[in-house]
Design goal:
This is Arabinofuranan 3-O-arabinosyltransferase. This protein is mainly alpha-helical. The chain is 65% helix and 1% strand. It has 18 helices and two strands.
Length: 408
């Protein structure tokens, strides 16, 4: 390159171009979602029931006395979660909510950073701002902030659990997932992966942390038994609002019970096969791919076949989607990303021209998104299984199974 060309056409690193484009856009999206949309709020308000429960807890009043016949957000955390949430009620409701939103927004950025590092990328690469942009483009992140929900902290606990589990820091891994159990046990299916990987020490703190917190909270609670008598049975019901599970859709749309049961069984069977294949062929060769994909299969299936699956749970599938950067990923296909669009998109499909069709699509998009994503992962692994049987190959993706790294 001549001297003239060097000044007229300076070379710029493509990664730097990516960061230059993504960071300002990402920062503006963070500010818009947190400072404007979240502070504005919406009709759905997950924070007020938590704040009122914390205030009642601190003042020794009843916590679990809500009317579950209404469709308003209800307080569903166990006494351990009430204990952890109680500092919120020290401040006035508005200040407390704004602080909660700000901390949640920061936690989501931290999650993007940790996922970047977990999958082997430097924080100076384009991947970090790209993840922040992707996070804040989704319905799950936007509504977590707008509704002011605890989900960001669950995602942080999940990622920290995965990172520490891979590093064999088992007791600390259990602490982080145990703290999420203390508030909402949505990550409980991941304990199956702990058992499969024989990292028994994780169970000590994963079970011990919420147990100890419940023991501490119990004597300070006015009505802890009502959580067991009233709230737990309600959690087992399949309600027909804000519920994207198969049973929730079945109740809302009036689908026959036999078809709902058949669909639940079908997705459970697909999950069993996927988990078996991942354990058999990837746990020893690529533990990160095994853990991230298996966690996504477990949680996605749990959202579908359980009694309650809410759209903003989809952020817990971010590690599964990040496996697209790994060799052997089960989401390197367009159906998987069409499913991701369904369960993550912030798009609204209400239509004035085609009202019934738009309403069905809007109310069902998360369900079909989860479904298509789980089917895509299952089919990807099934085709590999059939190819292996046909060719009698010793491993997957050209890698022969080897013994796992021993836990320390």
């Amino acid at each position: 390159m001549s001297v003239v060309d060097r000044y007229l056409y300076p070379r710029v690193d493509p990664s730097r171009i990516g960061r230059m484009i993504l960071w300002p856009i990402s920062i503006m999206m963070v500010l818009h979602r947190s400072v404007i949309l979240a502070v504005n709020g919406a009709r759905t308000d997950d924070f007020t029931p938590v704040y009122n429960a914390a205030l009642n807890f601190l003042n020794q009043r009843a916590v679990y006395n809500e009317n579950y016949e209404t469709v308003d957000p209800h307080y569903l955390y166990p006494p351990s979660g009430t204990l952890l949430m109680s500092p919120l009620a020290v401040l006035d409701p508005q200040t407390s909510r704004w602080i909660f939103i700000g901390v949640s927004a920061a936690v989501l950025i931290l999650c993007a950073y940790l996922l970047t590092r977990l999958f082997g990328y430097d924080h100076r690469s384009w991947v970090f701002p790209g993840l922040v942009f992707a996070f804040y483009s989704t319905e799950t992140v936007a509504h977590t902030l707008i509704f002011t929900n605890f989900n960001a902290f669950v995602l942080l606990g999940m990622i920290a659990f995965m990172m520490l589990m891979l590093r064999r820091q088992d007791l600390w891994a259990g602490v982080f997932i145990g703290l999420t159990f203390a508030v909402k046990p949505i990550l409980a299916p991941l304990l199956l992966l702990v058992l499969l990987n024989r990292q028994w020490k994780i169970l000590i703190t994963a079970v011990g942390v919420p147990l100890v917190l419940n023991v501490l909270a119990w004597p300070f609670s006015n009505d802890p038994l009502d959580f067991v008598k009233r709230t737990v049975p309600y959690l087992g019901e399949s309600r027909d609002y804000y519920n994207s599970s198969i049973t929730g859709n079945g109740v809302y749309f009036g689908i026959d019970g036999w078809l709902v049961l058949l669909l639940r069984i079908a997705f459970a069977v697909m999950a069993v096969f996927s988990l078996w294949f991942l354990y058999r062929h990837y746990r020893r060769t690529d533990e990160l791919l095994w853990l991230a994909t298996s966690s996504g299969v477990l949680l996605g299936t749990f959202f579908l076949v359980g009694s309650l699956g809410q759209g903003y749970y989809s952020m817990l599938l971010f590690p599964l989607l990040m496996t697209v950067f790994l060799k052997g990923s089960a989401v390197r296909n367009w159906p998987a990303w069409l499913g991701a669009y369904g369960c993550l998109s912030f798009d609204v499909f209400y239509s004035t021209e085609w009202e019934p069709f738009g309403r069905y699509l809007e109310y069902g998009k998360v369900t079909w998104g989860w479904s298509l994503l789980m089917i895509a992962v299952f089919c990807s692994l099934l085709f590999r299984f059939l190819d292996l049987r046909r060719d009698d190959a010793p491993g997957v993706d050209g890698v022969v199974d080897r013994e796992p790294t021993p836990a320390v």
